[in-house]
Amino acid sequence: MKMKKTIEVCESEAFTLMELLVVLAVLAMLAVMLLPALGNTQMDTRAFQCQNNQRQIMSAWRMYADDNSDLLAPNDYPATTAFTPATASQQNQMRNWVVGTMEQSFDAGNAALLTNQYSLLSTYIHTPPTYRCPADNFLNPTAHRLNVRSYAMNSAVGTIWNSSFNSGPPIGSPVQGGWLNGSSFNNAQTAWQTYGKLSSIVRPSPANLFVLMDESPLGISSGSITISANASLSFTVLLEAPGGNHDSGGVISFADGHSIVHKWQDARTFTLQSMFGAGTSLGTPEPLSPADVDLIFLGALTSAPR
Question: How much of the chain is in helix, strand and coil states, percent to nearest 5?
Fold first, then answer.
């Protein structure tokens, strides 16, 4: 008996036009959802690099204290005085954790001052780019270039050097924190704590006392940033502004070595143009109304009542 051969014909499967359109529509929706995240990738990378820079500076800050009997590095550089054109004798009197003021074009573009012998953390940090936030693209209008430094230190943290040559306390004394009260400058203030040694950082705890942050490039001057510790819902003033280069946020480093990227809730916190009216200047307390919750947040991290 002859067997009949059967031939099975398999029809090839293919997408219909409608199915292809559905797939393309789904891919388009996914792309729309992912674009914001991809757009923030560079910003997130810069924030990570900024944190890494500050970790290196904080590590040097601690090593300085370890090498100097627990004394913290000086943090009383004269905010408006250019370092670069000063005489050798004058420069010796301006020793600081980092010398120079971004307010003066002589210093704003001079990266060499970050690693010279008078910048006292230069023993531990040998690369000037460590001092600049990678997201800081502000062109200094007088230096006509990028500022060489983006970071500043809590004005309640550090020791005296320059002030001792101007009828101030002896070298190695804690900084005086003249702006901590937020109302008027007073280097004889006794209401708020200042910290001249690592061991003196008790209130707030090292995990809650900020040491370093990126400062607004519109207002950065010396290595010190003045934040009022006297902040409440009824009283907030801006003295110098934090930076907002990281998606309206800034990097803050604490005495225990950890750092955070904190997003500011009030745009006035980091936007100096909207904070300072005609006739005001940096270092002049400017009341905020309504109260700025960011400054209340920072006040608790700056110092504590004595």
Answer: 30, 15, 55
